[in-house]
Amino acid sequence: MTTPNMLPENNDEISLRDLIKSVHSLFLLFFRNILYVAAVGLIGGGIGYYLANSSTPIYTAKSNFIVKEGGAAGLAGSLGSLSSLIGVSGPNQLDRTLAIMGSEKIMGKVLLTPIEIKNDTDLVINHYIKLNKNLQKAWSKDTILSKARFDSSDINTTDFNFPQRKAYKTVLAGFIGEKGIVSKSFDKKSSVISMAVTHLNEDFAIEVNRLIYKELTLFIREQASETAGTNVDILKRKVDSIQGALDGTRRSLAKQTDQSLGLILSEDKVSLKSLAAKEQILLGMFAEAQKNYETFLFMEQSASNAGTLTLLDAPFAPIKPIKKSKVLYAAGGFILGAFICFGFIVTRRWYRKLMAS
Which domain holds residue 347? Predict the structure, then answer.
């Protein structure tokens, strides 16, 4: 009777035993050098604390507002509903407002508007460049961007030279890009729109937030007035067209009636009834078109004087800065320092064994 081969099991037991010994050896090595590990960890924790304490704080200027139901924005929604009568429709008002807020139309206007930061009045785009040291350093090495200059007369982007256009697009991306300083959202339940501007300079964040809200308000008001005016023109032409058709029908009916006096044939009766029915249809169309025309005309007159947005929360100083957590940075520095120190000790022991063998 042959004895079964137990070699695989023995190998497994040896491997497990070696593994346990290796782990035990590492624990012993760690505790023998715990003072060194702790010392280096404390140094790393101190460095982490210093980095967190010396980091530049970040300020977030937040504002909340709603689309005013009776204002120009609400009026634009009403006009959009009535516009279905003339073949015109629009998107959801909240989505539309968010899209407008993040558009180049609004942000471009903001960038080329002067604001005052610490007694220095300059365009927003110039303040953004001056407050961003890393951006200035990068641009100084660029042969095109280093030539970009903006002054108060630069209000039309179509007149920009190539360096200005490139700088303008770069700063614009810094505002509304994926990592831009401007963020926006809205709550579906309350329909409250939130806007936040994040920057290292508190005054800059607040002023930019206020300026975006101001430009958004003006733009929506202008669009509501322009939309109302366009719709009024369209309806006026429709009213005039129906009026012309109605007058023509009435003339035809009167002429047919005059020609058939004295002798009314069956054929004449059918023609007269047809013209009379057409007249009634045109009268109904004319009355409806006239009513819609007067409604749009009233809205056009109201749009220029209507409010647009209602501001719920405005940003103002002082804003609580967002700084890096000293506790987390100190703990992270301690763990990283201790890990590096112990890794060095383990590597040194392995090297010595390798050289000895």
Answer: 17-53+324-356
Count: domains in the chain: 2
The residues of the chain scoring below 50 in pLDDT are 1, 3-4, 6-10, 12, 70-76, 78-91, 263, 265, 305, 307
For 122, the enclosing helix (H) or strand (E) is strand 120-123
Give Cβ neighbours of residue 94 (< 8 Å, ≥ 6 apart): 67, 186, 191, 193
Angle between helical axes of 266-303 and 202-259 (0-180°, round to 10): 160
Query: Does residue 300 contact residue 78 with C-beta atoms inside 8 Å?
Result: no
CA angle 197, 56, 108 (to 5 degrees): 30
pLDDT one-digit tens code per residue, 210-258: 999 988 888 887 776 665 555 556 666 666 676 666 666 666 666 666 5
* Other C-beta atoms lying within 10 Å of the C-beta of residue 238: 19
Same domain for 336 and 309? no
196 close to 309: Cβ distance less than 8 angstroms: no
CB-based contacts of 310: which residues, under 8 Å, 6+ apart? Answer: 65, 66, 67, 68, 71
